[in-house]
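Handoff note, outgoing to incoming analyst
You'll be picking up this chain. Sequence as last confirmed:
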Amino acid sequence: MKCIPAIFLFFLAGSAFAQADVLPDGYLSDSSRISLLTAAPGEELYSAFGHTGIRVTDFKNNLDLVFNYGTFDFEQPGFYSNFVKGKMRYMLSIQEFEDFMAEYIYENRSVSEQVLNLTVTDKQKIFSFLNNNAMPENCEYYYDFFWDNCATRPRDVFEKVLGERLQYHTDSANFEKNRTMHDMLRVCVGNRPWVDFAFDLVLGLPCEVIASPRDQTFLPDYLAKYIGSATVDSKPFVITKEFIQVYPLLATEAGFLPIHLSLILVLTGIIAWIIERRKRTHFYTFDFVLFFFTGLLGAFFLSLWLFTSHYSVPWNLNLLWLIPSHIFIAFLLLKKKKPLWLQFYFTGTFVLMAFLFIGWQWLPQHYNLAVMPLLLLLFFRSALIVARLRSELD
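Most recent structure output, in case you need it:
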C-alpha cells in the first residue's frame, strides 16, 4: 500500500486501494510483540517518501498483521471532488504481513522493524485501539500530508495509549535543525529536480514554519528516528531494530532540469529581441504565449488557495510573478489598437519582477532557482512592451 501526498496527485497518476477488514478483538498471548515497520523511499513518485505500518505478531495465536494508515478507496463517494477540495479520506486497513511486504519485495525497497518495549497489557491496549480504529465507522480520516498522514497516525496511537509514560529525547538524535516543513520535503525529493520544482511552485507560506523533531515525523524515516529516541517508563522504547530486507537506495539521474527549461526560455526571449531589433518590430505573439501561460499557472495556484481545504497551499508568494490577471491581459496584446493603460500595467509588472529578483534572499518563501531566469524574462519582456507601447503613441 502506498502513502501518497494527496496534494501531489495533481502531478501524478497512481493510488492505493484497500478495504478496512476488521478482526475479532481477541486477546494477545504473552509471546506477542508490536513493532514499527518503516519502508524506504522507492523509485516511483508516489513512494518517494517511504511508508510506515504497525505490525502485531502473535505466533501462538497464528497472528501476523500490519495496520496500515496509508490506504484509500477509489470507489468512495465523491472521490475526485473530495481530492480537489482537499478533503481526501484515507483509512486504516489491516493486511497480512506477507501481503504488506509483497510490494516492497517487488520494488526492491528496504524495510526495517523496530520491536517496541511494551508490557502484555500495553500490547493488548494498542491492539484493541487499532482494531477499534479499523471499524468501518472509525477507519476513515481526512488526510493532510504534513500533519495527519500514514506516519503521524502510528505516532499518535502510541501516545494516546501510553500517555505521559512515553517520553522523547531528541537532543542527541540528529534531527534537522532550523529547517522548515518545506525544507524537509527536499530531504526526500532533492534528487528529483522536477518534483522539487513542482513542490516549490504549489506550496505556500504555511509550509515555511520551522519543523520541530515532532513535526518532522510526517516523514516515515524521521518517525523511526523519533520512536528510537523515546523511553517508556524510563526504559528504551525500542528493544531491537533490524532490517527485514536491505536494498541500496536507487539513484535518480538528473537529466533535463527545470533550470535548463528556464534558460532555454530566456535564450528564446533574447533571440526574439535580436530579431525584433533588426526588423524594427515587436513579437506580441511571443508575449501573448509567455504571459498567458504564467497567468494560467497563477490562476491554478490561486484556485487551490481560495477554493480548497489543502492546508499547505494558501499564501503562495509565487503568485507575485505568476500573476493570474495575465490571462486576460495577454489577449489585449493581440489587439491592433491597445488600451493606453496597458503600458502602466506592464510598468508595474517589470518593477515587481525587479523587486522580486533583487529581494530574492529576503522573501519569506524561497523560490526555486529555476524561477530566477523566468523573473528576468518577464522583466525584460515587460520593459520591451512598455517601450513599444510608448513609441506607438508618439
